Amino acid sequence: MANLRTTKLGIIGAGAVGTSVAYAALIRGAADIVTVYDLNSARAEAQALDLAHGTPFAHRAKVSGGGDLDLLAASDVIVVTAGAAQQPGQSRLDLVSTNAEIIRELMPQLVKRAPDAVYLIVTNPVDVLTEVAADVAGLRRGQVIGSGTTLDSSRLRWLVAETAGVAPRDVHAMILGEHGDSAFPLWSNATIGGSPISNWADEAGNKIFDDATLADLASQAVLSAYSIIAGKGATNYAIGLACVRLVEAILRDEHMVTPVSTVLRDYEGVDGIALSVPCVIGAGGVQRVLRVPMDQSEHDAFHRSGEAIRAVLEEIGQL
């Protein structure tokens, strides 16, 4: 039997999110090599050593870490988590100036070492930084993507499942637009076990998801990060799992459909702005951007997200 190709996952940032990505990757066996880079080389080395000590209990993988970008050479996927952290009460968009400069400086150095890698941007504000990264990198379309509303959609699915009393895997619902305050659920396409969410009822035949319930669930999904940050300083475990699920889809060429942030071309009238929409994810990153029907309120919400991101891009001179 021919040897399978060795896969390599590079992670930028040895903080809470970066190490959660590495930890999830080891447990799920996402890649054969996992490398963590951080400007603080001692921290990256220590995190890698701690992770490596657990590999006898996880999938076999080679783990390394340090402060030399050359460690990331020939990576298949690079997850970028480096940047200033979001503080309690601070919006994601408030982070933009500092983190945009970090991305502008970092991306050319990464592309030089791993020109064929798929770059998954996680640093916030992720839609703005996905646009910045794609512009600076100069790679083909779809090779630079943002984690976007993958996590928001997961939060929504969990909330709907808890309300309906079903397994999250049987809920199909997405949040689109900005990964931030203007994100919105695509309720018109949401289903539970194949049944439209608007038809879902309890055993007595009473419909569960009225307008007030849907509005509350949407608010919880979009704003829950703030309560987590207030309570423990960062969101890290769920985004770590979400990122690794995307890494798996890329490395295994799964053709998985999920919303991620990508620079759009005339999508619902939005052009040249990175927002989350359903995409086919596989080898090479975004293989196809899917167009989904939206009702008028969803169309309007999508444009509001686009305008929010456009305003920030203009402020930092990106447009």
Automatic annotation (TrEMBL):
UniProt keyword Flavoprotein, yes or no: no
Domain Lactate/malate dehydrogenase C-terminal residue range list: 149-316
Phosphotyrosine: residues bearing it: Y226
Residues annotated as the enzyme's active site: H179
InterPro entries: L-lactate/malate_DH, L-lactate_DH, L-lactate_DH_AS, Lactate/malate_DH_C, Lactate/malate_DH_N, Lactate_DH/Glyco_Ohase_4_C, NAD(P)-bd_dom_sf
Catalytic activity of the protein: (S)-lactate + NAD(+) = pyruvate + NADH + H(+)
Keyword Iron: no
Official protein name in the record: L-lactate dehydrogenase
Taxonomic path: Bacteria, Bacillati, Actinomycetota, Actinomycetes, Micrococcales
